[in-house]
């Protein structure tokens, strides 16, 4: 696959379409099975609270993966991401109800780099708090 966005058509400040991702306890159980990360803070409310968390929290890598979907959906090619990193600043707390939690992600082109690449800065929020810091992806465009 190749990115569907042309480097020449993108300017610094170009905003990517924002997205909202739902997270429920069922989502966390499925992710635990796929990733092999069965840490009880991600599924056992009693344990999570005993270790000082407000409730069960989403896996950090799950949160990170959901956030970068804004970039991969924008480019049309997951392989266009050549570098990606974040800092985990706050957990995504997932209550045991029908709603769960949401992760709201927006991004914009922060810099045009060499070799048809751009740096995209992402902002990921949940429950009004920034859950990822320094969330940046370098993406190779068409």
Low-confidence stretches: none
Q: Give the fraction of residues assigned to helices.
A: 10-25%
Order of helices and strands: EHHHEEEE
Largest sheet: 5 strands, antiparallel
Distance N to C terminus: 10 Å
Which geometry do the CA atoms define? Answer: elongated
Q: How much is the radius of gyration in Å?
A: 16 Å
Strand sequence of the main sheet, in spatial order?
1-3-4-5-2
Helix-strand makeup class: alpha+beta
Q: What percent strand?
A: 35-45%
Mean pLDDT across all residues, rounded? 97
Strand elements, count? 5
Number of helices: 3
Topology:
Blueprint: E1 15-23, H1 25-35, H2 45-50, H3 60-75, E2 81-88, E3 101-112, E4 117-126, E5 129-140
Antiparallel strand pairs: 1-3, 2-5, 3-4, 4-5
In short:
The chain has 142 residues and is α+β, with helices and mostly antiparallel strands.
